[in-house]
From TrEMBL:
This is Sensor histidine kinase MtrB. Its EC number is 2.7.13.3. PROSITE patterns: HAMP (PS50885), HIS_KIN (PS50109). GO terms for cellular component: plasma membrane. Residues 533-572 are annotated as: Disordered. It comes from Cellulomonas carbonis T26. It catalyses: ATP + protein L-histidine = ADP + protein N-phospho-L-histidine. The keyword ATP-binding applies. The keyword ATP-binding applies. Residues 243-295 form the HAMP domain. CDD domains: HAMP, HATPase, HisKA. The chain crosses the membrane at residues 46-65, 223-241. Keywords: ATP-binding, Cell membrane, Kinase, Membrane, Nucleotide-binding, Phosphoprotein, Transferase, Transmembrane, Transmembrane helix, Two-component regulatory system. It is an enzyme of class 2 (transferase).
């Protein structure tokens, strides 16, 4: 029961990605490569972590030191200017008290002479403002005087109120506007003075702190350069220290890879007497022990393969004689009593299975000895699949299993050995039919520019993930109690995976209990192509569905009249 269908109509490909999408994809690839590089290098992770920690520590220390220096410079300069402004205020008050000016013009002249004198009497650049305090009109009115009237707006009403309400000096930090639109730090100090015959006035001194700001910026630049140097030195020191630690580990990894590739004489260099040298000596001792054990195991495996090959060849001669005698007995079975006639039929059946087992053992021995030869030719895989399905159709019909085959419309040519590929597919189909429990078996063929794939899916009893990992082992059975109704030898899938590897291809298995199993064969189109992906998925579309509940009553196991206990033990 076979149904062959063509592929579904191909879907159109999407439009090419735009420039922004390509740039985003390239950036994502570079970021992924950088993350992979960072995660795969212990030395890089340690160095970057040390640099990050060093930068944070140096940054916090720099901020703290800069803040402390700024506070120190400001406090020192503030004390200086407060003392200067206090002396200048006392000098101005003494000048007003000693003056004999009694008219408005005389007092105005006194203000014009005093304010410039107060400006030049300080330790640095400063501006002076003399303003009349608001209140009742004094006997004489004298105009306010300042060295820079444009900066008079820095004197706020709150500051003036504080100066008038307290006899001590009042100060406030201000930003002095410059010609380029920036602000320079400044300190504005105010005091109250009394002018005879004119009343109460306010004397303000504006000090420019640009010099201190320049000193602070110089210190900050020095701290930044020193921080960069410290971080660089920390990075270099960390790199050197981690290199001394990581280099032996890398050497061990390289030697381990060489050992894994079969270079058993590879060893690590031993230098010095420290912990790394102890690690190298221990690693070399382990490698020496592994080499001895592997050599002994190879010798034992060689003897086992030689034994299997020799026994298989030696058994063929007596088996031929037994076959001839069995054929004579089978030809005369009608003349025998029923029990002897039945024995003659069973003898012939089990001899067929014994010959198949010997043939598989000989094939396995050729793979083990490296004597298997690939007779590759350019063939259409669809024809090979059709031949394998036709060979398995009688078995499927007896088991009541429907075979469905989906082939591509275009030719599926590849450089293959038709005999070996057909044997792989025949083993997969017979295995699927045997475990399908009457459900359909689906075969699908697809290809791309590099590879061809064939999947065989059944919906029978299925298998667990652990069973999927061992399904290609020799003489392995998922259910040892299950009888082989098709005369299997237990070597079919083991031979199939060897045939796939001989082509440079893959043979993979997937299964879930109650949802069946899927086997995927992937072959390169031409010799020398290294497979990186398969045209067909291994996990079916319904592979992620929940596992169905088991039936309430177990199904009765089928009995095989040809499966006698003694002969089954002979096969095992």
């Amino acid at each position: 029961m076979v149904a062959v269908t063509g592929p579904a109509a191909p879907t159109g490909r999407g439009a090419p990605a735009g420039r922004v999408e390509r740039l985003a994809a390239a950036a994502e690839r570079r970021a992924s490569a950088a993350v992979h590089r960072w995660r795969s290098s212990l030395q890089l992770r340690v160095v970057t972590s040390a640099l990050a920690a060093g930068m944070v520590a140096v940054g916090l220390l720099g901020v703290y030191v800069s803040d402390r220096i700024a506070d120190g410079l400001f406090e020192q300069r503030r004390e200086e200017v407060l003392q200067e402004s206090a002396r200048a205020t006392q000098q101005a008050q003494a000048t007003f008290a000693a003056s004999t000016a009694s008219t408005g013009p005389e007092l105005q002249t006194l203000f014009y002479d005093l304010v410039p004198a107060l400006q030049t009497g300080g330790s640095g650049s400063r501006e002076v403002f003399l303003r009349r305090s608001p209140g009742d009109l004094p006997p004489l009115l004298v105009n306010d005087v300042s060295t820079d009237p444009a900066l008079g707006g820095l004197i706020t009403p709150d500051l003036r109120q504080a100066v008038r309400s307290d006899e001590s000096q009042r100060w406030v930090s201000v930003g002095i506007p410059l010609g380029d639109g920036t602000l320079a730090p400044g300190l504005l100090i105010g005091s109250a003075v009394e002018v005879p015959a004119a009343g109460d006035y306010e004397l303000y001194f504006l000090y420019d702190l640009a010099a201190e700001q320049g000193t602070l910026e110089f210190v900050q630049r020095t701290l930044a350069l020193a921080g960069v140097g410290v971080v660089a030195a920390l990075g270099a020191l960390t790199w050197l220290m981690t290199r001394q630690t990581v280099q032996p580990v890398r050497s061990a990894a390289r030697v381990a890879e060489r050992l894994a590739d079969g270079h058993l004489a590879e060893r690590m260099p031993v230098r010095g007497a420290d912990e790394m040298a102890t690690l190298a000596r221990s690693f070399n001792e382990m490698a020496e022990s592994l080499q001895d054990q592997i050599i002994r195991m190879e010798d034992l495996s060689h003897l086992q393969r030689r034994f299997v090959s020799d026994v298989s060849h030696e058994l063929r001669t007596p088996l031929t004689t037994i076959r001839m005698a069995a054929e004579v007995i089978h030809a005369s079975r009608d003349e025998l009593d029923p029990a002897a006639r039945r024995s003659a039929e069973l003898l012939r059946t089990q001899l067929d299975r014994f010959e198949a087992l010997l043939a598989d053992l000989l094939e396995i021995s050729r793979f083990d000895a490296g004597a298997a030869v690939l007779d590759a030719e350019r063939r259409d895989v669809r024809d090979v699949v059709t031949s394998a399905v036709e060979a398995a159709a009688p078995i499927a019909e007896r088991r009541g299993v429907w075979l469905t085959v989906e082939l591509p419309e275009e030719p599926a040519h590849a450089d293959i050995d038709p005999r070996r590929v057909e044997r792989i597919l025949r083993n997969l189909l017979v295995n699927a039919v045997e475990h399908a429990d009457g459900h359909p078996v689906e075969v699908q063929v697809a290809g791309d520019q590099r590879a061809l794939a064939v999947t065989v899916r059944d919906h029978g009893v299925g298998m667990t993930e652990e069973e999927s990992a061992h399904v290609f082992d020799r003489f392995w059975r998922a259910d040892p109690a299950r009888a082989r109704t098709t005369g299997g030898t237990g070597l079919g899938l083991a031979i199939s995976i060897e045939d796939a590897h001989l082509h440079g291809g893959w043979l993979e298995a997937w299964g879930r209990p109650g949802r069946g199993a899927c086997f995927r064969l992937t072959l390169p189109r031409r010799a020398g192509i290294t497979l990186t992906s398969s045209p067909l998925p291994l996990v079916p579309d319904d592979g992620d569905l929940p596992t169905p509940a088991p039936p309430v009553a177990p199904r009765p196991r089928e009995l095989d009249p040809a499966a006698l206990p003694d002969l089954d033990r002979l096969e095992a």
